[in-house]
Write a structure and sequence with these properties.
Length: about 375
């Protein structure tokens, strides 16, 4: 791997964060306990949701919200193909069938509410909205659509911690929302996730399912609050551990500042790219990933290669899920998703990116497109 002049993303773990984690290891209590409880209070307050549950990763959060929504065999769930495969897998884990929807346009790479409405069949039970790149897409319209058609709206908000739209945090528009705290996400701890909901019954069910369907936690028994437990549902071990919960709480305190830096970089990218022929940014702001669409005649992979030669790391978000072998059978034609997947590039974006780095990205892109 070359030494990148500009990596796609960068995780900075300051000494203060390491001290927070070390302190937890010294405390002698390592799995879900007081730090997790504190993190959950903070996440609920931060997002404005009634309940927040911290879990092992974003995929487990998605799985729990799909189960809590009552999904099962015979149900269809409308989901974008242009997402990380976990959004789709979480639906499939329950036995329900993912139904792929095309994106609205190359510059609006998420399904419109109208496209979602057109995909509804008598078997449709839910909509899985994905805040692509941290953009809310048409989440408010999807909320109205779900309400009017009696569908459950679920939100994959893995890219959208700290993103508010029409006065609400993304993830609170639907019945439940899931976040990821994977290494390359805006709030990163390696592996970690959370889900939020305003619904007391859903929260209770997901709390049980997170820990084997057991009615009490080890922490409760440790504190003498419970002697034994019953198992009332087919649950999982989707718990988070205390070091990561403490690290998340420490990093959450910096998130708004870091997201503001990302927003400023997003603004500056748009300003600089306006002068470059043959490339258009997708609709913003992008809080998480910054994607551009190249002219139809451009050699996308050649452009990526030229950027790599100059030390600029890029990526592709995403190989469309409807082409993966596991989902390809019977998948619909999604021409805009295919065109986007062939022409889009993800450019570097991270809170500590400098203007010099950003200039190098844009100059390298302009040179590659001109050459
Ligand atoms: C990262 C991501 C996930 C999965 O989260 P993990 O924490 O890696 O399990 C789900 N959906 C989207 C859109 C993601 O980007």
């Amino acid at each position: 791997m070359p030494a990148w002049q500009v990596p796609l993303a960068d995780v900075v773990v300051p000494e203060d964060d390491i001290a927070v984690v070390a302190e937890v290891y010294r405390s002698g209590w390592l799995s879900m306990g007081p730090r997790t409880a504190e993190l959950e209070r903070e996440l609920a307050e931060y997002t404005g949701a009634r309940h927040a549950l911290a879990v092992a990763n974003g995929t487990t959060a998605l799985h729990l919200i799909c189960i809590a929504a009552g999904l099962g065999p015979g149900d269809e769930v409308i989901v974008p193909s242009l997402t990380f495969v976990a959004s789709v897998n979480a639906i499939a884990y329950t036995g329900a069938t993912p139904l792929f929807a095309d994106i609205d346009a190359l510059e609006r790479p998420w399904p419109s509410a109208a496209a979602v409405e057109a995909a509804i069949t008598p078997r449709t039970k839910a909509i899985m909205a994905v805040a692509y790149g941290g953009h809310p897409g048409e989440i408010a319209e999807l909320r109205e659509l779900a309400a009017s058609r009696g569908l459950v709206l679920l939100e994959d908000a893995a890219h959208a911690i700290g993103v508010r739209h029409e006065g609400r945090h993304v993830g609170t528009f639907g019945a439940a929302g899931a976040f990821s705290f994977f290494s390359n996400k805006n709030l990163a701890v390696g592996e970690g996730g959370a889900l939020i909901t305003d619904d007391d019954a859903l929260a209770e069910r997901m709390r049980l399912l997170r820990s084997h369907g057991m009615t009490t936690l080890t922490w409760d028994r440790h504190r003498g609050h419970a002697a034994t437990y019953d198992v009332v549902d087919l649950g999982f071990n989707y718990r988070i551990d205390e070091p990561r919960a403490a690290l998340l709480a420490a990093r959450l305190a910096r998130l708004d500042r870091e997201n503001a830096q990302r927003r400023e970089l997003d603004r500056r990218y748009r300003e600089l790219l306006a002068a470059v022929e043959g490339v258009v940014p997708t609709a913003g702001p992008a809080h998480h990933i910054f994607t551009v669409v190249l002219d139809e005649r451009a050699d996308r992979d050649g452009v990526r290669h030229a950027l790599h030669e100059r030390g600029v790391q890029t990526s592709l978000h995403y190989p469309p899920a409807h082409h993966f072998s596991i989902y390809a059978a019977g998948a619909p034609e999604l021409p805009l998703t295919d065109a986007y997947a062939a022409r889009a590039i993800t450019l570097p974006l991270f809170a500590t990116m400098t203007e010099v780095q950003q200039d190098l990205v844009v100059e390298s892109l302009a040179a590659a497109l001109a050459g």
